[in-house]
Amino acid sequence: MWAAYTILQTLFVLGRVSEDGMALLSFIPGLLAVGALLAAGLSRQECFLVYKPLSWAGFAVLVGVFVLGQAAVLPVSVWQGWNWCAALLLAPASGISQELFFRSALLPVMAILLKGRSTPALLAHAMLFAAWHIGPLFVGAPWWAVLAVLLVAFLAGLGWGWQVQRDGTVVWAMLQHSLFWVVGMQFALVA
């Protein structure tokens, strides 16, 4: 399922799938994966699909991920004006759907495959989250830009995954990831 989702993401980066289409289609892998885990007997708690308070440590990590992401994107971007559709629909859809797949489905699967060892599961899921962002390689981005995208995505995946494991809920990562995209979708990368 990860491979299919990665292909979908790459098609989006290549311009073969529209932003609107991607916002809708991105929910399919997450919903299918979480549905399969729940049907297999995992609980909502094991998939982090519960509400719990955000810890101070979790808050600090989310702030760090937000700053890292914006520091990586904004210097190579230009303001394109406020886009209400992107801010109110596309950004939350992107943040929620990615967290649903990567933190509510893939992270628990990695923990199962790695016999409950949370640190190796966290690292494996962050590597897969980074690899999911491979699309810039196929649009002619310079190698250093591709490596930067992969590094930032890996670190963000570590941060979001750690916060979800620490606090036992994906809610805060969904909110923060959505906020990241609310800001990010108002800018266009400079070619």
List keywords for this structure.
191 residues, mainly alpha, 2 strands, 70% helix
Q: How much of the residues is beta strand, in percent?
A: under 5%
Neighbour order of strands in the largest sheet: 1-2
Distance between the termini: 31 Å
Radius of gyration: 16 Å
Q: Can you summarize the main beta sheet?
A: 2 strands, antiparallel
Structural class by SSE content: mainly alpha
Number of strands: 2
* Principal-axis shape: globular
Helix content: over 70%
Order of helices and strands: HHHHEHHHHE
Question: Given the structure, what is the number of helices?
Answer: 8
Mean pLDDT: 93
State the low-pLDDT regions, or none: none
Please give a structural write-up.
There is one protein chain. The chain contains 8 helices and 2 strands; from the N terminus they run ααααβααααβ. It has helices at 2-13, 19-25, 27-39, 56-73, 84-113, 118-132, 143-167, 171-184; strands spanning 77-79, 187-189. Strands 1-2 form a two-stranded antiparallel ribbon. The longest helix has 30 residues, at 84-113. The two termini are 31 Å apart. Helix 4 packs antiparallel against helix 7 (143-167), helix 4 runs parallel beside helix 8 and helix 6 (118-132) packs antiparallel against helix 7 (143-167). It is mainly α. It has a domain at 61-191.
Short structural summary:
With 191 residues, this protein is mainly α. Helix content is 70%, strand content 3%.
